[in-house]
Write a structure and sequence with these properties.
- With 240 residues, the protein is an alpha+beta fold.
- The protein has four helices and 13 strands.
- A six-stranded antiparallel barrel has the order 1-2-5-4-3-6. It has a four-stranded antiparallel beta sheet with strand order 7-8-13-12, with helices on one face. The chain has a three-stranded antiparallel beta sheet with strand order 9-10-11.
- A hairpin with a 4-residue loop joins β12 and β13.
- The chain is globular, with a radius of gyration of 19 Å.
- The two termini are 35 Å apart.
- The model has no long low-confidence stretch (mean pLDDT 93).
Length: 240
């Protein structure tokens, strides 16, 4: 587990303190630990603010950085910041929680449509998965009802870990055709969705998710678009 990622330890955490580890000139700040999720895996980065001394800075972007670190890009970098300074982090919780619901919903969508995934994108209001799907969906309401049934069954969502060697022996865990889990750390993070009866879904993922599917509420299937000969895009929305 990457101990720098506070959002892996607790995705519900809204604020945290850390220490300014380094300043990347003209780019951003590296903290010892970050609460902010860096854009990756189709999930946008978190937004919010950081407070350092007398400064309160809007976070404009968050990116993965070398060595398992995260680069926080504030609106500007004050020229008198000191390495070792205490940094208070405050994420936009409403936005994070929408991403958590959406990301978990897309995992359930991949269960209901058990086809190879060719792409995906998470948004606060609309998210989607692209599938290797030669034939059109006959009735999208069937898909919608199946996902909502899974949501209502209050499935448990947990993270677990396996070695890279174990993943190599279980290639069926990787549902995406074009994107593979990053290797090099020795361990791969998995997201498990399960009921009392057993596993519903298990796949590599670095994103943030709700702890129980009932938190999602209800989803609506949006447009199902043809995006190539064998590719179809399934859009979802959180029902309000």
């Amino acid at each position: 587990m990457n101990s720098n990622y506070l959002f892996w330890n607790n995705s519900y955490r809204k604020q945290a303190e850390s220490v300014l580890e380094s300043i990347i000139e003209q780019e951003g700040l590296i903290l010892q630990q970050t609460l902010f999720y860096p854009a990756s895996g189709g999930q946008p980065c978190d937004q919010g603010i950081i407070k350092i001394g007398n400064y309160s800075l809007k976070v404009e972007n968050v990116k993965k950085f070398e060595g398992g670190k995260t680069l926080i890009i504030p609106e500007y970098i004050p020229n008198d910041l000191k390495i070792g300074a205490i940094v208070e982090q405050f994420i936009d919780w409403d936005l994070r929680y929408k991403y958590m619901k959406m990301h978990t919903s897309l995992h359930l969508l991949s269960v209901v449509i058990p086809l190879p995934v060719t792409g995906g994108q998470i948004g606060a209001n609309k998210s989607r998965l692209d599938f290797d799907m030669p034939e059109a969906v006959e009735d999208k309401l069937i898909i919608e009802n199946k996902i909502n049934d899974l949501i209502k069954s209050d499935l448990i969502v947990e993270q677990t870990w396996i070695t890279e060697e174990e993943l190599d022996k279980k290639p069926e865990l990787v549902k995406t055709m074009s994107v593979f889990p990053p290797k090099g750390s020795g361990e791969i993070r998995l997201i498990s969705i399960k009921s009392k009866k057993g596993e519903v879904d298990l796949q590599p993922c670095g994103g943030t998710h709700v702890n129980r599917t009932v938190e999602i509420g209800k989803i609506k299937i949006g447009k199902i678009e043809k995006k190539g000969k064998n590719n179809r895009r399934v859009n979802i929305h959180l029902a309000i």
